[in-house]
Amino acid sequence: MRPTPPVLAIALLAGLALPAMTQSARAETPAVAVADLPDSPAPQSAQPAPGAAQASQSSSSTQTAPVPVAAQTPQKSQRELAAEQLKKEEQQRVLGVVPNFNISYDSNAASLSAGQKMQLAFRSTIDPFTFAAANLVAGLHEGLNEDPGFGWGPEGYGKRAGAAYLDAFTGTIIGNGILPSIFHQDPRYFRLGHGSVGHRLLYAIGTTYICKHDNSGRWEPNYSNVGGNIISGALSNYYYPSSNSGWGQTITNGFIVTSEGTIGGVFDEFWPDISRKLFHKDPTHGQDAMVAATHPKQKPVE
Question: Who is most buried in 2, 173, 256, 262, counting CB within 10 A?
């Protein structure tokens, strides 16, 4: 299986931006909005039943204890909370172009349901950037004289573009949707955002091979990511030229693509620091600042 188009794009962006990051700009702590209190229930206007006057008079001296505000406000279910967080994640983009849906800036984000995992994966595969990246990869492969079995010219270019898109589609749907649902693993990258550069770098690389379990929240081997890359590589044997197929090559390419995925993890970890430093924008929307204010020892790298 070939590297997916977003990984190549992220690698190019990382190569340009990371050397310029000597320190991260501090983000301003956002103001916390005060939630409006719920309206009091309207009194009932029904008339008392005959013979109930005496009971009403005897109970009038007893005051009804007010219901606490917390009890009046229904608690959101995990699914509802995850849906709100997912909606925000689907708006995340690098430089307003490259989709960055699969990253959570909240380390305690609610676990996604199977349907929400599939929704997130499918949303990534139909993004316009995914199609554009597939065409970019096709042009690169043709220029480098790769996959000659596809031929040359418009027909060969179209076959390469289709193969590149299928690589991205199957890898995302299987590795970020189907397998995480089966193994109950969270497919998102949970950004650390604090500590030394070396510590964060090792964390970003490690998350390619480990992930959070939905129920326990504990870290475990990332069967979904590694397995998704291998299965996607196996499927590519059906649409790539026979000279590039074979099970041995499939497994090798699967692990190569998994290793290349560490580039995306490193970029996701340091992108907010780069953005604040170079573009004066905070992709975390104050999350880093809130962590620094609450836990001074966990402030972002300076």
Answer: 2
E-assigned strand segments in the chain:
93-94, 98-99, 103-104, 189-190, 210-212, 219-221
User: What is the rounded CA–CA span in Å between residue 188 and residue 196?
Assistant: 22
What are 50-69's pLDDT values in tens digits? Answer: 444 444 444 444 444 555 44
Specify if 48 maps to a domain: no
Q: Where are the beta strands (DSSP E) in 125-178?
A: none
**What is the residue range of 260's domain?**
100-302
Taking alpha carbons only, the member of 227, 129, 167 closest to residue 2 is 167
Written as six digits, the tokens of 232 are: 């996607």
Q: Does the predicted TM-score (pTM) go above 0.85?
A: no
Which residue, among 214, 267, 265, 256, has the nearest Cα to 232 in the 3D structure? 256
Q: Is residue 79 part of a domain?
A: no
- In whole angstroms, what is the distance from residue 75 CA to residue 169 CA? 37
Decide: 203 and 194 in contact? Cβ < 8 Å: no
3-class secondary-structure state, position 19: helix
